[in-house]
Design goal:
- The structure holds three protein chains of three kinds.
- Chain A is an all-alpha fold.
- Chain A has helices at 2-9, 16-36, 43-68, 76-91, 98-123, 127-146, 158-163, 172-190, 192-202, 204-209, 214-240, 251-261, 273-292, 297-321, and strands spanning 165-166, 170-171.
- Helices cover 43% and strands 17% of the residues of chain B.
- The longest helix of chain B is centred in the first third of the chain and has 20 residues, at 2-21.
- Chain B is globular and about 65 Å long.
- Classes of the chains: A mainly alpha, B alpha/beta, C mainly alpha.
Chain lengths: 326, 356, 317
């Protein structure tokens, strides 16, 4: 089975130049950043930057699978909020509740993902509007559940551990992000689910005719997306503690931008977890750069927009050069 | 295409010139005199004869942003105070989620449902005026519990925390704790909000008295701990030397604190006093420095009392002013409720009125 | 196949959202005397005008299988620019109004042009543009500015012979949208593009000019909506348009226009906007707690999406 899927999979592999595009952009941006401020080449700063990106980065890994399948998941911001709030509530400041809290957060994410997946796969409706509706519901549920103030207390040790640096250098959160990315890469290239996702995204009708379980793969993709968003919520909770009832507000759009920068398209079948990781870093370095260059708030917003547009345009340009679809 | 671009550039230039030309004709929030004038207005007697009403009272509360802990606690204290007045039959609460258009609709709906008084925390003071005008025409009492004093025929009264004094207390204590020297940055609320405008103006005013202090950057942390932390991390990168952070909102101060801590530069950080946010109080208790300025959470209760006075025809003044106090670290640490969440405020509300 | 009278025809032709709207109105009439007043009806219409115009503009883009996320911030930009201009040039209201609508249309045109030239997915381009426009707003101002011309205030809140002026404006925009989308060759081409861009191209349609025009209309409508917001608020509030783009998309979808395009119903969109307006109004009047209201609205979006999914014959692409 696996060799057959492999051979099916190979023709849909991305052209290498396109796959490399986001890494080229990342390298160029890092070079530019280094010219502006030598701090960007300091290990401490770079690791700190990656740490900042951890919540968005972890969440983006999961959304990549949804986008491979021509979908989009706008509910991840709300899931991040729910996960962070629920985890702190369950922990209730007690050390013995640590794992229970982590479990609760992951379960929240996976369950909402499951609901998304079932509704989208079996309801045959637009993922944009369905996950948008789900994000409103989840946001409302969190507000109802908390009464508007985030009442949880994090278990002692949770934040301390995750915010520490191993050997005083490597932040634990960076390792978490890298583990999440590696797990994503594993799912993408070493499991039947990952390979099916590429095939279905590239051509759902053909995949269906070839006997691939389209609905099951779709549901799993949304569960994965929800689960990673739940983990992203944990990362956010670790980074900033209990901070209000909607800490993930608007995060879905940063995630979306990062995944698209990483090479995924709305036509599905393209993109990769590695690319998404690079996309996340492009976004964060760009914003940091704007900030470090001392640009005012307004200019930073404009820069963010222009970078998203420029990077995406660069993608389609490189894609068309390397003989991709128009 | 090219001529479109030219037109666009031209429009942009005209737009920018116009910005410069616009002269603020309303209250100038960036001048101390405005606040002295406000305190004089506040003491003026209020003619309540037009509003006197017999029988049951119905009160509407239009919150601008109910998922913010401070506003949430204010809303709870409105409900609590209302429960102490038997003549108040119901309190209706709406949430605009920081959308001024939704707030206008909310207030119209409150008017339709026949409330006698509307307490409001405006998303924006100017944007809410047209709908308050409608309330005024219907003879409904309107009481502002937002950041800024509103003087307009459509606003019956204010329950008011003097933001200038509040920010000034924060800024002055901050300057003192830095011995009037050093490079500082400001962590402000949502860009465009009046709170952000006032806090920055006060800080700049106070800093005039301390020529050796330099404001190196102003950031907008949206009252959000996570955002404040990220902004502070970037500033730490940008500036090799930072001596202090002006941050009147405790939840944002916590984000700043963590950023400095993780960068190993906590030693160089002096924070301004924060407010009565519980997470901040925990931090003050732990560090034994920096202190707090109380944020005036009593406005909710005062606003209800004021509404009742006006509707029952008791004599009162144009506004009730809720004072804020600077608490030295030792005293501020007592606000700390260690078994409560960070996202919490110290109040005297009975348990059943705490957010559920 | 035989027509079975008006009732059957109405049942077939009426967009499904109207059944929900009717149910909602019946609930309102049954439960609250306050709901039944004419002034409440006028309020709902006033409150819904902005969304109606914005959703009608979005319909052009969505019908063609695209999406425009930039309209919310465009509304904010126009609100701010208009109020600044009204303040600076008090005697020239008409010029300012025309200028603002032209500016909005221009931004829409730029969106369309960039999508064509850069061959970018509209979602990501307009998402980038959202951020750029928000930046432009904060370049202009960080707080409420200016004031609004009396004509615009009247447009948003006034009554013509007891009928809300905003309703008349919406009627005009809706009539134009109906004609162009559902009765003109252009609309037919746009829907063809939404159905299948590839087939449309093979059939010789100029997708570039269709895209350009759809975004031009979306920008134009955002301009009108921006003026309406200015009239409602009386001031240029920089965050006035936050999130409006999602509301508009929800309204379009609830109205029976699927996000992948190829099908559109102006009447459905109007019904959906009215449905959302009545819903907000009723939830407030029935004292549903603020947080519960959010959940209810989200559930309605989900339910309505599921209820309006493609019919039996149409195979999903």
């Amino acid at each position: 089975m696996s060799t057959m899927t492999d051979s099916l999979w190979r023709p849909t592999r991305l052209p290498s130049l396109e796959e490399a595009a986001v890494w080229i952009v990342l390298a160029a941006l890092l070079l530019l950043a280094g010219l502006t401020s030598d701090a960007f080449f300091k290990l401490n700063y770079l690791t700190n930057l990656v740490r900042q990106a951890a919540p968005v980065g972890i969440t983006a890994v999961g959304v990549t699978f949804v986008m491979l399948l021509r979908g989009v998941d706008l509910s991840v911001g709300a899931i991040v909020s729910m996960s962070a709030v629920a985890c702190a509530l369950v922990m209730d400041g007690k050390p013995e509740n640590l794992w229970l809290g982590i479990l609760a957060a992951s379960a929240c994410g996976a369950l909402i993902g499951l609901a998304n997946g079932i509704l989208i796969a079996h309801g045959k409706v637009s993922s944009f509007i369905m996950t948008l509706g789900m994000s409103i519901v989840v946001y409302g549920l969190v507000q109802m559940g908390t009464g508007g103030t985030a009442r949880g207390i994090v278990s002692p040790g949770f934040r301390e551990t995750l915010n520490s640096r191993i050997g005083g250098v490597l932040p634990v959160l960076v390792i978490c992000l890298l583990v999440a990315v590696s797990f994503g890469v594993f799912l993408q290239s070493r499991t039947r689910f990952g390979r099916s996702a590429y095939l279905i995204g590239a051509n759902p009708e053909a995949a269906r005719l070839a006997g691939l379980p389209v609905n099951r793969v779709t549901v799993i993709a949304y569960i994965v997306s929800g689960l990673f968003a739940g983990l992203g919520g944990l990362a956010l909770l670790a980074r900033t503690g209990v901070s209000g009832t909607n800490p993930g507000a608007g995060m879905e759009f940063d995630v979306l931008a990062a995944v698209v920068l990483g090479g995924a398209t709305f036509a599905g079948g393209r993109g990769s977890v590695g690319g998404t990781f690079a996309g996340v870093m492009v976004l964060f370095i760009a914003l940091n750069l704007a900030n470090v260059a001392g640009m005012p708030f307004a200019a930073q917003l404009i820069i963010k927009g222009l970078i998203i547009i420029a990077a995406s345009a660069a993608h389609s340009w490189i894609g068309s050069r390397s003989g991709g679809r128009s | 295409m090219r001529q479109y671009l030219k037109l666009f550039v031209a429009t942009a230039i005209v737009g920018t010139c116009v910005t410069g030309a616009v002269v603020a004709q309303e209250m100038d929030l960036t001048k101390k005199e405005t606040y002295d004038q406000i305190m004089t207005w506040a003491k003026e007697p209020l003619d309540t004869s037009n509003y006197k009403k017999e029988g049951d009272l119905r009160i509407g509360l239009s919150a601008g942003y109910l998922s913010n802990a401070w506003i949430n606690f204010t809303a709870q204290s409105v409900k609590y105070e209302a429960s102490l007045h038997p003549e108040i039959k119901e309190v209706k609460v709406t949430d605009a989620a920081f959308n001024p258009t939704k707030q206008a609709a909310d207030i119209e709906d409150l008017l339709t449902s026949g409330v006698d008084a509307i307490l409001f925390w405006p998303v924006d003071e100017k944007a809410i005026l047209p709908v308050l005008q409608k309330a005024h025409e219907k003879g409904v009492v309107t009481i502002n519990i937002g950041y800024n004093f509103m003087r307009d025929p459509a606003v019956t009264s204010n329950a008011y925390v003097n933001q200038w004094t509040y920010s000034e207390q924060v800024a002055t204590e901050f300057a003192k704790s830095l011995n009037g020297k050093g490079k500082v940055f400001a962590m402000l609320p949502i860009a465009g909000s009046s709170a952000a405008v006032v806090q920055l103006a006060v800080l700049q005013e106070v800093l005039k008295g301390y020529p050796e202090m330099e404001l190196i950057s102003s950031e907008y942390g949206d009252w959000d701990r996570a955002k404040a932390k990220q902004l502070a991390e970037n500033l730490l990168q940008r500036f090799p030397e930072i001596d202090g952070a002006f941050s009147p909102a405790g939840q944002m101060s916590m984000g700043i604190y963590e950023a400095f801590d993780e960068a190993g530069r906590l030693g160089e950080l002096t924070l301004s006093p924060g407010d009565d946010y519980n997470g901040w109080a925990k931090l003050v208790a732990k560090e034994g420095k920096w202190g707090s300025v109380t944020s005036g959470l009593e406005v909710g209760r005062e606003a209800v009392k004021q509404a009742v006075s006006i509707l029952t025809g008791k004599p009162t003044t144009t506004a009730v002013v809720v004072p804020t106090r600077y608490l030295a670290p030792a005293e501020a640490a007592k606000l700390n409720e260690a078994d409560r969440p960070d996202d919490w405020f110290k109040t005297d509300l009975p348990t059943e009125f705490l957010p559920q | 196949m035989r027509p079975r009278g008006t009732a059957a025809l109405v049942y077939q032709e009426l967009p499904r959202i109207y059944w929900a709207l009717i149910a909602l109105i019946l609930i309102g009439v049954a439960t609250g005397p306050q709901f039944r007043t004419l002034s409440n009806l006028a309020n709902i219409l006033d409150q819904s005008a902005v969304l109606a115009v914005l959703a009608l503009g979005q319909a052009f883009v969505i019908a063609g299988g695209m999406i425009d996320l930039s309209v919310g911030q465009l509304v904010g930009l126009i609100t701010v620019v208009a109020c600044m201009m009204f303040d600076a040039f008090p005697g020239m209201s008409l010029l300012v109004i025309v200028g603002c609508i032209a500016l909005a249309a221009l931004v829409g045109l730029i969106n369309g042009e960039l999508i064509n030239r850069l061959r970018m997915p509209p979602l990501i381009l307009t998402f980038g543009m959202l951020s750029v426009l928000q930046g432009c707003i904060f370049v202009l101002t960080d707080r409420s500015v200016g004031q609004v011309a009396p004509a615009i205030a009247f447009l948003s809140n006034g009554r013509v012979l007891g009928v809300p002026a905003s309703l008349l404006l919406v009627a005009i925009v809706a009539a134009a949208a109906y004609y162009v989308l559902q009765r003109s060759v252009f609309g037919w081409h746009l829907l063809a593009m939404g159905n299948s861009a590839d087939s449309a191209r093979k059939a010789g349609l100029n997708l570039f000019s269709l895209t350009r025009f759809a975004f031009l209309v979306s920008g134009l409508c955002a301009g009108i909506a921006g003026l309406l917001v200015a009239g409602r608020l009386g001031t240029g509030f920089p965050n006035a348009g936050n999130g409006l783009e999602l509301d508009a998309i929800v309204a379009v979808v609830l109205g029976g226009t699927p996000l992948k395009g190829g099908r559109v119903s102006v009447a459905g969109i109007l019904g959906a906007v009215l449905f959302l307006g009545v819903l907000n109004n009723l939830l407030n009047l029935m004292q549903v707690p603020a947080f519960t209201q959010i959940v209810v609205k989200g559930l309605i979006v989900i339910t309505a999406t599921l209820a309006d999914r493609p019919g039996r014959v149409v195979r999903p692409a």
